[in-house]
Design a protein that fits this description.
Layout (H helix, E strand, L loop, with lengths): L2 E6 L1 E10 L2 E10 L2 H9 L3 E5 L4 H4 L9 E5 L3 H5 L2 H4 L8 H10 L3 E5 L25 E3 L5 E8 L2 E2 L17 E5 L1 E3 L4 E6 L2 E9 L2 E6 L10 H4 L4 H14 L1
Parallel strand pairs: 1-4, 1-5, 5-6, 6-14
Antiparallel strand pairs: 2-3, 7-11, 8-10, 9-12, 12-13, 13-14
Helix pairs in contact: 1-7
């Protein structure tokens, strides 16, 4: 059993309703982590979820309690800039550097795609200009890296025997988009989407890193992928278990 920290995968939506000359706003809080959390728990892993709005204040500088850290749809600023740095202009710990050093010492890191993963929408995820970029098994684009696939597209498995894919067999359900990245030398690309890396793994120092460039929940991962497909738990469980070895 591994202890897994998932940071991100939640958001707050605010809508403005305009009715004639009057208007009001309504807010909702959405948690998208449940399919991934359920899948990893089904394979015996202990999962700690740190919602996106708590990441700036509570992302740990000491990661020794965890075997694997998952960053999913949470931008670099949220991890890197603690309130005392961003709001009070006091020097503090660079938590992305701490994460890099933890991986180099033997930790496992997984980044999952989304509008605020990799480079992200309008470049706002912004990992390319951080120290964590060197840890990832892929090269990030300098511009908005989202590829939308409204009609859906199926993954092509390129290394079905790799343990990180969990032994899943058959065709994968379609996905609706992903973040486009480029493999680095030495990276193993285990599955592609639209001929770009979907699942890729590598090593950094004594640790291991992996990416899943589509989402783990809607909208890029529709329910037929993240809820109805029994391969979902095998793929994400396989990646986490490979990272934790």
């Amino acid at each position: 059993m591994s202890r897994v920290l998932i940071a991100g995968e939640s958001w707050i939506t605010q809508a403005t309703h305009i009715k004639g000359v009057d208007h009001f706003t309504a807010s909702s809080y959405v948690v998208g982590v449940e399919p991934l959390r359920k899948a990893l728990r089904s394979r015996g892993h202990e999962v700690v979820h740190l919602p996106a709005h708590l990441v700036p204040a509570e992302f740990p500088t000491d990661l020794s309690d965890y075997d694997v850290v998952v960053l999913s749809d949470i931008g670099a600023n949220s991890v890197q800039l603690a309130p005392e740095v961003f709001e009070q202009a006091r020097p503090g710990t660079d938590r992305l550097a701490a994460l890099r050093d933890w991986v180099s010492s033997g930790g496992g890191l997984l980044m999952i795609g989304g509008y605020l993963s990799f480079t992200g929408i309008e470049g706002k995820a912004a990992y390319r200009n951080t120290v964590l970029h060197e840890v990832l098994p892929v090269e990030l684009l300098p511009e908005d890296d989202r590829v939308e696939l409204p009609a859906g597209a199926h993954a092509t498995v390129t290394d079905a025997a790799h343990p990180a894919l969990g032994g899943v067999e058959g065709e994968w359900p379609s996905l609706l988009g992903y973040n486009r990245v480029l493999p680095r030398p030495g990276t193993k690309v285990l599955a592609t989407l639209n001929d770009d890396p979907l699942v890729a793994v590598g090593e950094y120092g004594q640790g291991r890193t992996a990416v899943f460039t589509s989402d783990c929940s809607p909208h890029w991962a529709p329910t037929h992928f993240c809820e109805d497909w029994d391969g979902y738990a095998r793929v994400f469980g396989g990646v986490v278990e490979w990272l934790a070895e």
